[in-house]
Amino acid sequence: MAKIVDRAIWNIGPLFIVIAVILVDLCALAYYLVVFPYTYNWSDASILRRIYIIATLAFTFYMVYCIHFHYYMAIRTPPGGTADSGRTSRPDQTSEEQEASLRQVLLEMEEYDEYPRTCKKCHQPKPERAHHCSVCNSCVLRFDHHCPWIHNCVGHFNHRYFVLFMTYMVVSAAYFAVFSWRPFIISIDFVNTEWPYYFPRPLLAFALILAICMGLALGALCAWHYYLILTAQTTVEFYNNYYEKGLAKSEGEIFVNMYNFGAKENLKRFFNIGDRYRWYTVFYPIPIPPRGAGRVFEKCEEFYQLSHSRQRNQIRANQEVQDLDDMKDI
Q: Which residues form the Palmitoyltransferase DHHC domain (predicted)?
């Protein structure tokens, strides 16, 4: 039964993408054909007002482009598989990145020598934080979840695009809702038949309701993902860590998330902010890779302060949970 559901989710993925694009573009059309001309009158505006109108138009174009760019990148960017290679170095790397790449290789060699892993489904070497997606039928690096709306897994190499897509969607939905409520009131006033816009009244009303619903739904999901980013977890790891935290508490010990470097550093690591990509590059709609190859991850100082037996037990526990997840529908 699970395999039938997984196959259905995979087959319906392209339809979900088409629906998502249509709904987003419907709201964009409603804004430019109704809300914008209703809110801003170019002919009677002063010079400063016209500059403000142009700036507003540029801002909305930027938001619409960022939504489409990050959605496209989330769909088209492979999340990262265990068979991927050649992602650990580039000719144009900075000294910081070269040092990080070398550290990644050494960590991977150490990790595999001490804790060799093999996926129980695809029978390939399995890096840490990787999980087997039953929908895609492959192991995904730093797997978070499979999203039918992008017809792809959310993993190491496209998680950043997925989060930014949601961020721009939530901000845009709130912006649209704030500025479209007056035209919305007019659109539902069928007593007054005057409607000087090409965009149909019912579609404008639908667009506002849709924007509110999408903003609330994606807002909750977006807030959840930012919480996971700030605490250095994926969705899968959150539930595993919640269990391990309760188990450690019952034994009088303190649970340590080995990947947690603090909220600020976690945010920088997720968005790959450093010498090469400064903080403002987060606002650039350009392809930016994540930090590292996604096959092995540095551990925080608190983790190395634990006894060697606790370190080993925690790593083994994570591996056992990965194996249980992968064995679910075999």
A: 116-241
**Which own/partner contact pairs does 236-239 have at CB distance under 8 Å and 24+ positions apart?**
236/131, 236/143, 236/144, 236/145, 236/325, 237/129
Model confidence at 188: pLDDT above 90: no
Confirm if 210 and 26 have CB atoms less than 8 A apart.
Answer: yes
**pLDDT at position 48:** 93
Q: How far apart are CA 131 and CA 153, in angstroms?
A: 11
pLDDT digits (tens, 9 = 90+) for 12-37: 999 999 999 999 999 999 999 999 99
pLDDT at 201 over 80: yes
User: How confident is the model at residue 238, as a pLDDT?
Assistant: 92
Residues serving a catalytic function are 147
3 state SS of 189: coil
Within 10 Å of residue 3's Cβ, how many Cβ atoms? 11
DSSP H or E run through 139:
strand 138-140
- Spatial separation of the C-alpha atoms in residues 39 and 37, rounded to whole Å: 6
Residue listed under structure tokens 């700030």? 230
d(CA 82, CA 140) in angstroms, rounded, equals 7
Q: How far is it, in rounded angstroms, from Cα 146 to Cα 161?
A: 14
What backbone phi and psi angles, to 5 degrees, belong to 210? -65, -45
Number of H helices, E strands in the chain: 10, 4
Within 10 A of 71 (CB to CB), how many other CB atoms are there?
Answer: 23
| Residue 266 near residue 230, CB atoms below 8 Å | yes
What does the radius of gyration of the chain's CA atoms come to, in whole angstroms? 24
Residue 213 to residue 191: CA distance in whole angstroms: 27
Q: Where are the alpha helices (DSSP H) in 81-158?
A: 95-114
Instruction: Say whether 194 sits in a helix, a strand or coil.
Output: coil
What number of other Cβ atoms are within 10 A of residue 308's Cβ? Answer: 8
